[in-house]
Amino acid sequence: MTVHHRRGKNFDELVPGDIYVHRPGRTVTEADNVLFTTLTMNTQSLHLDAAFAQSQEFGQRLINSLFTMSTVVGLSVADLTEGTTVANLGFAEIRFPAPVFIGDTLTAETEVIDKRLSASRPGQGVVTFEHRGRNQRGETVCTARRAALVLCASPAAASSG
């Protein structure tokens, strides 16, 4: 019998070109939007004021885009980086091609774009992920590239890249 504890992937398990489909999805609630928006001091009326938002282009409150990105990336953690990431190094090419509204269900997938061993941190490598989030209609609502510092599984893997 084997007992498995680790949920994320080590550097040497991640293969550029591989795509991970993350489940379950996450339905966004009004409480999520209000809490995230107020915790981050974003007082944008499009997120908080239903009457104002109703008079605007989309006719309803928009979910805070940084909540959307955080959720899309968060959906990937159990599959990819739980217990194996040392640090996030940065985000790039962040896009929000469609809005998210209260009641939408977000799903995500992640493609491993690139990886390389760290030149300054033995036993660790830099992995570039592209996270893609969609709503329940299959519309892309968020894309983001993320560079993360990830642990190697073994010293042999660390030297072979």
UniProtKB/TrEMBL annotation:
The organism's place on the tree of life at top rank: Bacteria
Organism field: Mycobacterium numidiamassiliense
Descriptive protein name: Acyl dehydratase
Protein family according to the UniProt entry: Belongs to the enoyl-CoA hydratase/isomerase family.
InterPro entries noted in UniProt: HotDog_dom_sf (IPR029069), MaoC-like_dom (IPR002539), MCH/BMMD (IPR052342)
Domain MaoC-like: 16-127
